[in-house]
Specification:
The complex is a heterodimer. Chain A is an alpha+beta fold. Chain A has ten helices and eight strands. Helix content of chain A is 38%, strand content 20%. In chain A, the strands form two sheets. Chain A has a five-stranded antiparallel beta sheet. The model of chain A has no long low-confidence stretch (mean pLDDT 81). Chain B is built from two helices and two strands. Chain B is flat, with a radius of gyration of 15 Å. The relative contact order of chain B is 0.18. The chains are: A alpha+beta, B alpha+beta. At the A-B interface, strand 1, strand 2 and helix 3 of A face strand 1, helix 1 and helix 2 of B. Strand 1 of chain A pairs parallel with strand 1 of chain B, so a sheet runs across the interface.
Chain lengths: 284, 67
């Protein structure tokens, strides 16, 4: 069995993978279909943190259809608020409002999803079930290219195993080794540490990001460390920016420094406790 | 209840599941895909999905999924 049942995988749960997995947060995501956004650059994806809207991140994803975008609003439970107000704020009042002056939302195409964010499953095989896609990690880390990659690679390994009569762990060892290598290439908590921006006010974000020496490029590829080259760009930027921030805004420097040096469990203690897997709601 | 036989069962028809099913079928395996939703595509239909793998924009930037 190849289980590709998503970020809240029932298969992963039933097979017991989630019992010892580190859990950070339940992420709530609302996506609005918007046309007519006028971005300042011909880019595919704009990812923006907005401090004044209570721990909310929003990003603009260009769709494959001309002049169509997804306005993606993301927040961690229990910080979710009024999405319509948040959308209105972004489009009418925020510093990005000029991009939206001719924008139009198609409310009939609004979608939403809930993502429970765990650490990756480092060995996604148990009882002849192989997990793939965002069943083994959270969706933004896997992405669509990552989902396709794990799906195709796993099926390749499984068909070879079938042909060789090794329908067991040994038969798919090459795939498991590849995935283990992918997950151990980096510290999976790093992107979550960069969420310190969400704790800043809008003024602080504008000040801080305004001092970055270059625009951080968008990434679409997964698993080839491009994601982490983006993180590296951020780190290089941080190294250059932090001494300036320390001098100009010592209180902001202390705030960021504290976040970066706090253990990941502590940072996400509140959201982990409130997250859906930990809620004491009995489902009948 | 019908009893079905197959080489590989794929649970869910999102980008990962469909890629797995197609890849396995291309290599000669019989495959059954189960999907609980009314449509296929999974996360590909949601906010992150339409980033346009192989779209004009991704081609222009030379982004390619590497298998």
């Amino acid at each position: 069995v190849i289980a590709a049942d998503g970020v809240n995988s029932l298969a992963a749960n039933m097979l017991g993978f989630n019992k010892k997995r580190k859990f950070l947060a339940t992420v709530v995501d609302i996506t609005k279909r918007v046309s007519g956004i006028e971005l300042p650059a011909e880019d595919d994806h704009v990812h923006i943190m907005s401090g004044t809207t209570n721990n909310m991140v929003f990003c603009i994803c260009r769709r494959a259809v001309e002049n169509e975008f997804n306005l993606d609003l993301v927040s961690t439970y229990p910080h979710v608020g009024n999405w319509d107000k948040k959308t209105d704020y972004i489009m009418r009042e925020s510093r990005f409002a000029p991009w939206f002056k001719n924008a139009r939302i198609d409310e009939t195409k609004t979608t939403c999803c809930i993502l429970n964010v765990y650490e990756p499953i480092f060995k996604p095989y148990r009882d002849n079930v192989l997990l793939v896609g965002d069943a083994i990690w959270y969706s933004p880390a896997i992405g669509i290219p990552g989902a396709i990659t794990t799906g195709a690679k796993s099926a390749n390994a499984v068909t070879i195993a079938l042909n060789e009569g090794k329908v067991n762990e040994e038969g798919i060892a090459s795939y498991l080794e590849w995935w283990e290598k992918v997950t151990h290439q980096f510290d999976w908590t790093i992107p979550w540490r960069r969420a310190f921006l969400e704790t800043l006010t809008e003024e602080e974000i504008n000040y801080f990001l305004g001092r970055f020496p270059k625009t951080i490029p968008f990434l679409i590829q997964t698993f080839d460390l491009r994601m982490y080259s983006t993180i590296r760009d951020m780190d290089e930027g941080l190294a250059k920016v932090m001494p300036v921030v320390e001098k100009e805004r010592p209180e902001l420097f202390a705030k960021i420094k504290k976040f970066l040096s706090t253990p990941i469990d502590e940072i996400y203690a509140e959201t982990a406790k409130a997250g859906f897997p930990n809620r004491s709601v009995k489902v009948r | 209840m019908n009893q079905l036989e197959t080489d590989i069962v794929v649970v869910a028809a999102g980008p990962a599941g469909l890629a797995a099913a197609i890849s396995a079928a291309e290599r000669g395996a019989s495959v059954i895909v189960f999907e609980k939703a009314a449509t296929t595509g999974g996360t590909g239909n949601m906010g992150m999905g339409p980033l346009g793998v192989e779209s004009r924009h991704t081609r222009a930037k030379n982004f390619r999924p590497t298998l």
